[in-house]
Amino acid sequence: MAETEETLKRIQAHKGVVATMVVNAEGIPIRTTLDNSTTVHYAGLLHQLTMKARSTVRDIDPQNDLTFLRIRSKKHEIMVAPDKEYLLIVIQNPSE
Amino acid sequence: MLPSLKPSRAAAALPRGAAQGRRGCGLRQKLRTAFGSRKNVSILGRSHILTSMGTAVQKAAQEHRQHDVRVFDDEGKDVTPHPLFRPDPKTAAPKQSKLLAFSDSSGAAGSVFLPFSIYQTSEEDGRSVAPHSRTSESSRISKSTMSITESVLDGIAESGSLQDTAVSSPDVQVRREEIKEQLTEEDLDKRVDIYLTETETLRMLDLPTVVVSVESEDAARVLERNKIYVDVCKNRPGNDRFVEKMMQTINGATKNKKVQCDKIIMEDKGIVVTTWDLYDSYNTPQVEPTSKAEGSRAPTEKRSTSSVTKDQATPAAAERGSITSTTILESAGLARVHEEEKCHTEATLRSENFQQNLFFMERILMENIFQHKLAAYRQFPVLTDPVVTLEAGSTLAAIKEAEQEEHDKKNMDKKEQKEMLSDPSILPELNKTSDEMVPPSLEQLWSYRCDLTHQHNVSSMAWSKVNLDLLAVGYGAFDFKEQKEGLACCWSLKNPMWPERIFQCEHGVTALDFSMATPNLLAAGMYNGTIVVYNVQSSDSTTEFHSGECSAKHTGPVWQLKWVELDIGTTEGNKRERLISISADGRITQWLIQEGLGCIDLMKIKRTRSKKENLPAEKERKSEALISQWAAGMCFDFHPKDTYLYLAGTEEGLIHKCSRSCNRQFLKTYRGHKGPVYKVAWNPFTTDTFLSCSVDWSVILWHQNSQSPILTFSSTTTVVHDIMWSPKSAFIFAAASESKVEIWDLRISILDPVITRFADPEAKFTSVLFAKNTDCLLVGDSRGEVSVFELQDLAAGSSNEVDALNDVIGPALFPVAK
Lengths: 96, 818
Known about the structure:
heterodimer; A: 96 residues; Beta-Lactamase; 5-stranded antiparallel beta sheet; 5 strands; globular; B: 818 residues; 4-stranded antiparallel beta sheet; 18 helices; rod-shaped; disordered C terminus
């Protein structure tokens, strides 16, 4: 548990990291560095996208599964580590 | 025909309206339902009872509905018209018997069922019900009806007034609720089997056809009959046998009958079937119908993608059915869900999956941050992000082209440089390319550092033998005065900001090496002489082996450790790996890993008396007692080809060539250094030469046949801590002195280094390490940083290096070889 906390703190403290969020399967934030409404907004949208991505991956090969999702946009990179019970979301500004 | 039943008090107040309602859902009643769902029916009926009882209370006095009218003819026979819907008495019979039994067992509650089904099954029962309502009105009528109809009404006398029924109904109601409560709690999780059966086909209208096909079997007969009929019709008019007569019939009054049923609730259910859905359904084991399973299946349904709790609540609510109890139990359910949620969040944070995901996330973040540097490390061409550099509105294509041009040019430059460097004579002629020629340099890519290692002196570095991206760094002070706790960290290329493994040690770590045979073992030597072996697969600091228990442990700091593959035994191919250490107590020991560390001394370094001439005045010195018989060993290196041969450097400044087969005598002693020798290294390409560095500010190149130095490189005015030959070229080596790190290329110059890199004023470089799989140099300093430098524009080796090296050192060798 302590190691998890430490790692989470390190991630939050990295240069360029805009936000770190851990959201459970219902969209309720467990840990977040943003305000609640934004977190819920992100969580809802990314949940749907993750579902779709997972469906795509598994449709092609049912034995495969989605492990990580990265969305690179003009301003940021959104990285999502999906799981059955939670979503780990980190938003980074890679050019800094 | 009438069943002999005990009617209930509740039944007494049952008006026709409710009965009618019951009839409407008679079809539903036909379903043979299990116990659990029967209560559904009963509940619905209960609501009806409630409503109907309410109305009964109000309208009891006004009971004068036509439907309750019972028609009696003069003789008093009951000629009430039959109801339109007449269910099959056959199927009704067993039900009645069931109910019979049921009524016997449970009192008022059970009998609630009775009136409904009784009413359904036969119209005679309706007769039994009606008089109950009637009894409220007048006893006279009841008496009369009782006298007329038999059996069922035996117990009616008890249920006298409306008052009683009104009173009893709440009782019944309460009791019914209680019983219902019990059931719901117990049966909530039970599997409820619902059997759906078809009812019998009810023929409302049957119009047989009057048309027969010509080809059917009866056709002939029908035709014949038709013919006869035609004949009869023909004969009719004027025939005496036919007489016309008229008759008047009574046309019965038409009656409209309406039935109202409950609204049939329709539900749409849809699923998007995907390949993986099918795969999952076939392959996952039977999952218990827990709420979690429901929640996980929910996303596949088209209609809801909402939260797990909602899905939990809705099926549960559907099961419970009634309005009042739903609210009670839902709130209880929600409270339960809340607690579950709290435990859930804790569990998710603690789960291993989460930790792993965090681990990956960190690595990916690092990749984003360090992407360019890592690409340079791996010697990939570095592409800049076009979006980032898009400022002046130039097109993407243009920029890419420009990059390509630059890159091409750089490649060309490199090639030209290589040609130039290998052939120095052409150098002055290439004027046009002189301004493009870039001198070799070190470019810093990144440095491994973190808060934990801050201000710990880097004493040693070692690559893993298997994974060339895994670096072990030992932190420990060299000085006696600066001793504090030491660290051994394993750094990975994928995360330059935090080490993968951290091993805390009580004493400063002065030597490190990874094993080859068992690549997960890391041996560390400490300032107090202990040697520990860590297993890097585990992340805690427990040691696999500790030399503390060994009786022959070192008593001085272990200055160097190496895992060496030695030829053991007489056969050539028999190679075993042994851990060899040298320490300040003058011993070179070989350690065996067999359930603990066992050691054998390979050599004890005796102090050798210096061979300088003694001036007469110093004659007394010889008789002085020496503090120790053994000279402190500082470094050693095994010959790359011959594993019996090794060199050892001592604190006295001497380098001894020794053999494993003889542990008392040195084969040769090389004198040249004036201070302790910190490092010796055999040249990995030409196995006759070796390099040594020492406190006396110099680096000396030796040939093993000559006991005096071949070449001396003294370009610094500080202690040279570390040297290493480049794994790619026989001419290149790196030297770390405190204030700077130098790269020497012996083909270019033997007087000056080709690259010099100065250290920050506060830091002192203490160790160097070449990377094997890339052109990079790692330099550790006294602040705890390990900087990674890229060697740029340094010439690669050519094939005839060995000869070239001999050419270089030849002139120096000749005077001695004689």
